[in-house]
Amino acid sequence: MHTPPTLALGSGPGGVQQARRWVVDACRGLGRADLAEAAELGVSELVTNALLHGAEPIELRLRGTREHPRVEVFDSSTEPPELPGESDLDAFDLDAFDPDSPVDDAALLTFGRGLAIVARAADAWGADIESTGKVVWFSPAAEISEDDGVEGVVTGLDPALPGARPDLVDRVEVAVLGIPLPLYIGFQQHFRELRREVRLLALAHEVDYPLAKSLSDLFGALERQLRGGLGITASDAALAGARSVADLHVRMPREAAGSVQRFIDLLDLADEFCRQERLLALARTPEQRAFQHWFLGEYVRQARGARPTPWFDTTPARRHAAH
Fold first, then answer.
1. 296 and 195 in one domain?
2. Which of 68, 122, 241, 274 holds its CA 20 to 30 A away from the CA of 34?
3. 9-14 long-range contacts, CB within 8 A, separation 24+
4. Phi, psi (5° rounding) for residue 306?
5. Three-class DSSP category at 84
6. Reduced to 3 states, what is the DSSP secondary structure of residue 178?
7. Is 165 inside a domain boundary?
8. Residues 71, 72, 76, CA angle at the centre, nearest 5°?
9. pLDDT tens digits, residue range 83-129?
C-alpha cells in the first residue's frame, strides 16, 4: 500500500492550494476517491488555521488505515486550537465554496473562524498536543454533514506526573553506552508517532480497532511509570550537539525493570498490530527493532546485575568497526 510522503508547507495562501491538491491525490492513491471532497474541504481549514495561528514548521501527512485514513496538520505551537462556536458556521457559506478558485485562499485567510467546517467534513476530528507541538487531525467523511457535524476533542495534554516516592531507595545505576544518536532520536519520534496513532485510532474508531484501545491504555500506564527514568524524553538538541554517539547515565528504581520488559513486549505487540491493521505508517525496520531491544534491554539486564554492553559490541559488524 502506497503511503504519500509528508508534505512541508510554506507560508502564504499558496500553501492552502498545495495542500488541497496533495490530499486529493493521496485519497485517490489509496483508492478512496469517495473521501476526496471532504478531505479537500477539511484540509483547507486546517492549513489555514495553521498558517494563521500556528508556528513553523508546518507539515501535512496521512495516517490511519485505508478504511479510515486520517489527515493530520502538524505545527510547532502547543496552543490548543479554538473549538468552533455556534456562530462559526454562519460566517462561511459552504455552498459557495469553490475549491478550484484561488480567490478562496485569500478569503479563507480573513475568517479565522475556528474549525466548524472540519466538524462537518469529518467522521471524527480533534487535536493532539505534546511538548514538540500539535497535530490537528480529521477522518474525512464520505458525505459532508448538513448540520453542525461531529464534536472535536483535544488529547495529549497529560497532567503533571508526581515525583518519585522518597521511600524507593533500591535504585540501580544504569549506563547505556555508545548510543547512536540518529537511532535514538528515531526511537523518540517512533514512540511519539506510535503512541499518537493507537490513541487516535482508539478515540475515533474503537469498534473497528479494539486492540488499539488496549494498546493505548498500556502505553499510558507504562509511560507514567517510565517517563524520565529511561531518557527517551530527553531533548534531541541537548543530546546530539555535534556528536553522533553518546552515553546515557540514569538512576532507576530496580523494580522498574519489570515495566521496561513489559514495554519491550508492548512494542513488539504494536508491530504485529501495525502489520495486521495495515497502517499507513509506523512499521519498524529491523535496525530500529534491534536498537530498541538493545536500548531497553540494558535497563533490564543491569537491574539484574549485568555489566553494560555498548551498542557497538552487539553485532559483529559494529564490534569490528570499533577496533
1. yes
2. 274
3. 9/47, 9/50, 9/51, 9/58, 9/59, 9/60, 11/51, 11/56, 12/51, 13/102, 13/105, 13/106, 13/108, 13/109, 14/105
4. -75, 155
5. coil
6. strand
7. no
8. 165
9. 665 444 444 444 544 545 443 444 343 333 457 889 999 999 999 99
Give buried/exposed letters for 71-84 (b at 16+ CB in 10 A, else e): bbbbbeeeeebebb
Domain count, the chain: 2
d(C-alpha 71, C-alpha 61), whole Å: 6
Task: In whole angstroms, give the CA distance from residue 263 to residue 62.
Answer: 27
Structure-block grid coordinates of residue 139: 477522518
- In a domain? residue 166: no
Alpha-carbon span 109 to 51, nearest angstrom? 8
Query: Residue 228 sits in which domain range?
Result: 171-322
Compute the distance between CA of residue 84 and CA of residue 88 in angstroms, rounded to an integer: 6
Q: Say how far apart CA 206 and CA 222 lie, in whole Å.
A: 20
- For the chain, report the end-to-end CA distance as a whole number of angstroms: 42
199: phi then psi, degrees, rounded to nearest 5:
-65, -45
The grid coordinates listed for 46 are: 486546517
**Between 210-226 and 257-277, two packed helices, what is the crossing angle to 10 degrees?**
150
Please indicate, yes or no, whether residues 144 and 176 belong to a single structural domain of this protein. no
Beta bridge partners of 73: 60, 136
Distance of alpha carbon 5 from the chain centroid: 15
User: Cα dihedral sign for 299, 303, 304, 308?
Assistant: positive
Listing from the earlier edge strand, what are the strands of the sheet with 58-64? 7-9, 58-64, 69-75, 133-140, 122-130, 153-155
Q: What is the pLDDT of residues 11-40, one digit of tens each?
A: 776 888 999 999 999 999 999 999 999 999
Strand intervals (E) in the chain? 7-9, 58-64, 69-75, 122-130, 133-140, 153-155, 171-180, 245-253
